[in-house]
Amino acid sequence: MSRLGDLILLERTRQRLTHKQVAKKCGVTEKYLLEVESGKRIIGDDQARRILKSIGLREHNEIDFTLDEIAAAVDLETIRIAQPKPVPASAPSQPEAPEARRVATTDTPGEAVGGIWLDALSGVLKAVPVYNAAWAQVDRRLLPIEGGRIQGGAPEKVLYFLAPDDSMRGFRILAGDLVLLVPAQSPVDDAIMLVEYRQRRALRKVRKLDTSTVLLQAFDREYEAEPLSVHDVTFAGRAVRVEIAL
Fold first, then answer.
1. CB-based contact 240:193 (threshold 8 Å)
2. Cα–Cα distance measured from residue 244 to residue 179, given in angstroms and rounded to the nearest whole number
3. How far is CA 12 from CA 22, 27, 51, 127, 206, in A?
4. What pTM does this model have?
5. What pairing do the DSSP bridges indicate for beta strands 159-162 and 125-131?
6. What contacts 131, CB < 8 A, 6 or more positions away?
7. Would you give the DSSP letter of residue 150?
8. What are phi and psi of 223, to 5 degrees?
9. CB atoms within 10 A of CB 45
10. How many other C-beta atoms can be found within 10 angstroms of the C-beta atom of residue 49?
11. What pLDDT digit, counting tens, does each position of 152-203 carry?
């Protein structure tokens, strides 16, 4: 199944709509819709957006990312869908039976399906910028917002830093890895932080020696540590996750 087909299938199920209802709303045939959801028919981003919009998908942040990016940002494969039961062709025209409006469920009764995915579909995603050592934005990554936060940080303050070298090899961060940072303007003991000192910007492991002195640690081929006054260091953020480059 294609990613866009997944999006349409799950949003249709979330909206408790049958194939017939969606096909009528979109002006397509049921066969067409079935082929899209199964991945047998590949459609463009614009067409997928029209289908999703017709069944109630809010288009928050539309200018920031595409449906393909939304699909890539969440794990659709882990979501189990209970399809609405089709109404027999011979059945007379009547209001939809309750079982035909059954919402997707999980093995646990009452448990919401794909909570983080549904939040993403509602527009609760943030395009997090990726900055290099020269502080130029070179990319972005989509991350879901949970409870109004991303990894405990304010969504508008979170960022990725592209590791410029192997100076943090000993701490399992190599050149080209993406380090997710949350705001931190003061030293956090035993944390890897993005710091600025002596006209350079770098990742360092911080050790608080006392209230006014920190030890900035690096480890490439050899361990290095440099004591500095906290007044001589600008703390830009605390690392909470590393995404390796393959």
1. no
2. 9
3. 7, 15, 10, 25, 49
4. 0.58
5. parallel
6. 137, 138, 159, 160, 161, 162
7. B
8. -75, 135
9. 12
10. 18
11. 999 899 999 999 999 999 999 999 999 999 999 999 999 999 999 999 999 9
